[in-house]
Design goal:
Keywords: FAD, Flavoprotein, Oxidoreductase
Number of helices: 16
Organism: Gilliamella apis
Largest sheet: 7 strands, antiparallel
CATH topology of the largest domain: Uridine Diphospho-n-acetylenolpyruvylglucosamine Reductase, domain 3
Radius of gyration: 22 Å
CATH class of the largest domain: Alpha Beta
InterPro entries: FAD-bd_oxidored_4_C, FAD-bd_PCMH, FAD-bd_PCMH-like_sf, FAD-bd_PCMH_sub2, FAD-linked_Oxase-like_C, FAD-linked_OxidoTrans_Type4, Oxid_FAD_bind_N, Vanillyl_alc_oxidase_C-sub2
Pfam families: FAD-oxidase_C (PF02913), FAD_binding_4 (PF01565)
Structural class: alpha+beta
Shape: globular
GO molecular function: FAD binding; oxidoreductase activity
């Protein structure tokens, strides 16, 4: 096989170098761009395998992408082939008897969730980018707001089909609930950012769709009070979602969405969602929590409209910032009991550096999202100030026992912070695994494991 056109005969699914859209040369931030020789849209695992064999024979890099929502440079190509899996977006099988669904990796998260919920089933992982692909979610082990109760993507992947760097196809895992038959190879691919193989199909675990849910907001006078209440919440109940946000941050979402956030006189909030089988139990849990929290303001969403407005405001915060100024989004994770320490540090750093920072995030698992705003800085000043702030933030994160990424991945943006956080012996073991899986270093070779 001498040409890609022997594999992909439809000319619309092969785009030559000069015609590749700029959107395919970057990531979700659209700030840095790479280059590539060709863009290919496969539709089947067989086509992916044949393309990979072609790339292996011709020593061509492959950068795999889905919807391009990645925020750390993992989809910025480094020459060679861009493999766009967005046309591999079909549901292969819904198996209600085993509570599983098998899908191609290019299906969008929102389409999968809508499909299974029509059948009274539920796929719990719920990252912020609902237009991301399931393959992308698996490659970054995406989390989201419901992780505090239900866990992250890794917890719902039962089987995967993977095209290896030599073009061979592996099927790993099964529909069985329990599996201790040999090494759990699938977990090497989950979160590997496309460096070990190309996931083309997966079987995901589902659960029964919760019958009812309720969202309510607890208002506080300070962000410190809100964060100090997190452990009380977690000791009292198991929330579906537990988010923290300051009033000044929520206002960004208000302006962007056009909706009003409840309790405007409070300065900080915990947004809490509960779900379950009956509303009476949820009401009892909510009242018990408010009793334990003591004197505070609270608001209960009375219908779906109010619920949707609250979560729309929370979900639009990053886009609200991007609509005004360039920003750098960070997803740092620290132990739950150190969230307040990290937030206080960001406030001190903001005062010292005069760089505006908006902090919010997943209070239930210590995942802090931080938007660093460029404002009117020129390119040179922005890069200099941003680097200094990054160094300070990631250093503080490590001091508190945290890590540089909770769900976005490492990509190209966090390589130095990854190196500082992970012992050399661990990194060497990862490089050894990469060498075994991809000896020519062709798969997503622009990201962290291959550039350290």
């Amino acid at each position: 096989m001498n040409k890609l056109t022997d594999i992909i005969t439809d000319p619309k699914r092969i785009i030559a170098k000069n015609a590749i859209p700029p959107s395919h040369l970057t990531d979700g931030l659209k700030l840095k761009y790479g280059y590539a020789d060709i863009l290919v849209y496969p539709k089947t695992t067989a086509e992916v395998a044949a393309i990979v064999k072609y790339a292996n024979t011709n020593n061509l890099n492959i950068t795999t992408r889905g919807a391009g929502t990645n925020l750390v440079g993992s989809t910025i190509p480094n020459g060679g082939i861009i493999l766009d899996l967005s046309l591999m977006n079909h549901i292969v099988e819904l198996d209600k008897q085993t509570f599983t669904v098998t899908v191609q990796s290019g299906i969008l998260l929102q389409d999968l969730q809508q499909f299974v919920e029509k059948h009274d089933l539920f796929y719990p992982p719920d990252p912020g980018a609902k237009n991301a692909t399931i393959g992308g979610n698996i490659s970054t082990n995406a989390g989201g707001m419901r992780a505090v109760k239900y866990g992250v993507t890794r917890d719902y992947v039962q089987a995967i089909e993977v095209v290896m760097a030599n073009g061979s196809v592996l099927n790993i895992g099964s529909k069985n609930v329990k599996d201790n038959t040999g090494l759990a190879l699938k977990h090497l691919f989950i979160g590997s950012e496309g460096t070990l193989g190309i996931i083309t199909q997966c079987t995901l675990k589902l659960i029964a769709k919760p019958k009812v849910s309720q969202t309510f907001i607890v208002g506080f006078n300070t962000i410190e009070q809100a964060i100090s209440s997190i452990t009380t919440v977690l000791h009292t109940l198991t929330p579906t979602a537990l988010e923290f946000v300051e009033r000044k941050v929520a206002q960004w979402g208000e302006r962007y969405s056009g909706f009003k956030f409840p309790l405007p006189n409070s300065q900080a909030y915990l947004i809490i969602m509960l779900d379950g089988s009956d509303l009476q139990t949820i009401e009892q849990l909510r009242k018990l929590l408010l009793t334990n929290l003591g004197d505070c303001d609270y608001f209960v969403a009375e219908d779906n409209n109010q619920t949707n407005q609250i979560w729309t405001i929370r979900g639009s915060l990053v886009r609200a910032v991007e609509a005004i100024t360039e920003q750098d989004p960070i997803d740092i994770v620290v132990p739950i009991n150190r969230i307040s320490d990290f937030i206080n540090f960001t406030k001190q750093l903001e005062t010292q550096t005069h760089m505006r920072m908006l902090a919010f995030g997943h209070a239930g698992d210590g995942n802090i999202h931080l938007c660093i705003l460029r404002d009117n800085r020129d390119d040179k000043q922005w890069q200099s100030d941003l680097q200094n702030v990054h160094q300070a933030l990631y250093q503080k994160c490590l001091e508190l026992g945290g890590l540089p990424s909770a769900e976005h991945g490492i990509g190209t943006a966090k390589v130095s912070y990854y190196n500082a956080a992970i012992p050399e012996a661990n990194r060497q073991l990862m490089r050894t695994i990469k060498q075994q899986f991809d000896p020519k270093n062709l798969l997503n070779n622009q990201v962290y494991m291959t550039v350290v």
